[in-house]
Amino acid sequence: MNRADLKSKTQRGLFWSFVDNAGVLVSQFIIGIILARILLPEDFGIIGMIMVFITLGQFLMNSGFAQALIQKKDSDETDFSTVFIFNIASSLFIWLIFYFIAPLIADFYNEPALTPITRVISLSFVINSFGFLHQTWLTKQVEFKAQSLVGITGTLLSGVIAIIMAYMGFSYWSIVAQYLIKNLVTSVMLWMVSKWRPNMKFSWNSLRVLFKYSSQILIGGLVATIFSNIYYIVIGRFFNATILGYYTRSNQFKDLPVLTINSFVQKVTYPVFSKIQDDEEKLVSGLRQISRFLSAISIPLMAIMILIAKPFILILLTEKWLPSVIYLQLLSSFGWIFLLQFIYIQIDTVKGRSDYYMQYQIIDKILILIAILFTYSKGIYALIGGQFVATIISYFVSVYYLKKVITIKVIQLIADILPFLFVSLCMFVIIFFIIRLTDSNIGQLFIGIFASPILYFLLLKLFRIKEADMAIQFLREKLFKPEIKSI
């Protein structure tokens, strides 16, 4: 694939990945608000207790093979079919494990309801195993139009059913149903939109070759999965389901924009970076462009989230969720850093240094453990404060490993962030004082949502930051030339 074709396919992938994630974001946002108004914080807390284990089981089932298949330039039908068969077998095994350990999980949290919940929701492992390879195949082909249809449809259908169940009084079971139905719809539709079909050939040699690479991803990913959810475990174990519900809902609202941006960028950058992994000049240039893009979008989004947290919670979720305001503000203050860490570590895996990925994950999680040990006994706010400090230190650890695989200076990485951090801070201060002029929650929410991005854009223009002109050019192309030429 020549450079022009690669650029065209990347742009098309970014566009459709954005459509997918924007659609899912809006759908999840609306559905989440409706469910939060119907259900109690305790309901979300109970589901938050088990989701860490479900996420862990899901990663065990995937075993890092998706990254291995994408990274391997000559992966063939046998490779894909081998992983397909392995995933189905492993998903059944993992479900059986969860079925029998469900009472132990319930005892750990002292929450009897978790036994049946665990046994039912862990069926998602088996469901996902049937569509996992189809999604991997589409991603390797940088084909995201079909994935956008699948993602939005699954989110909407499962959300509507969950809302109906919540109104009927099914409490936390409505959230369980939402998760299972979304996975089922996604797997079925992936079979419908993907041209790939397993030939049912299994090769031990193929599995060994792929596992040699994926094992490092698996080990590092397992550590990452456990520790990215460890706060749910700690809060659920040492506090209660209601506090965990506040934290879970706040973290989910913070994560909606962050993870959506990360998801659509990751889908495109990993296969594209894999294709240019041997051209360091292109790789460094692409990394810096993506870093600036992520900073330009995520930092002001988190600033706006802090500004509108209180009116947002009161208007959309009602007063029963008011204690979660401070949680949302604290978590949003450093939520954007995750995006940059991820893209840096992605370069390590693209360059074939999955051992660096594993080492980084271990160090990162040691930092989290230290933070938790020093703060959990001092209350929930101290716990989140420790999370903030650990995230800052972890960022510089990710920079250290990035510098081991490509030639780039720390000052370059910081320089790509500072303009947007400065402009976002200016925007935050101005909007903060404007919001203080009104006591109306609706007025404050309106100012935060609509005035903040306009002011941010004007400040970018004022300080002559090129991303402002790039945004104008992008909008012109999409508004007046929306068609995307095929390759």
Number of helices: 20
Task: Return residue spans where pLDDT drops below 50 for at least 5 consecutive residues.
Answer: 478-487
Shape estimate? globular
- Tally of strands: 0
Instruction: Quickly give the structural class.
Output: mainly alpha
Order of H and E elements: HHHHHHHHHHHHHHHHHHHH
Number of domains as seen in the coordinates? 2
Distance between the termini: 10 Å
Report mean pLDDT, rounded to a whole number: 83
Cα-atom radius of gyration: 22 Å
How would you characterize the largest beta sheet?
Answer: none
Strand content: under 5%
**Fraction of residues in helices?**
over 70%
Describe this structure in words.
The chain has two domains: 1-242, no CATH class; 276-487, no CATH class. The chain is built from 20 helices and no strands. The protein is mainly α and 487 residues long.
Jot down its keywords.
487 residues, mainly alpha, 20 helices
Task: Summarize this entry quickly.
The protein is mostly helical and 487 residues long. The protein is 83% helix and 0% strand. It has 20 helices and no strands.
Q: What is the topology?
A:
Layout (H helix, E strand, L loop, with lengths): L2 H36 L2 H22 L2 H7 L5 H33 L4 H8 L2 H6 L2 H9 L4 H23 L5 H21 L10 H25 L1 H9 L2 H35 L4 H38 L6 H9 L4 H14 L3 H22 L4 H24 L6 H26 L5 H22 L4 H14 L7
Helix pairs in contact: 1-8, 1-12, 2-4, 2-5, 2-10, 2-11, 2-12, 3-7, 3-10, 4-5, 4-10, 8-9, 10-16, 12-13, 12-14, 12-15, 13-14, 13-15, 13-18, 13-19, 15-16, 15-17, 16-17, 18-19
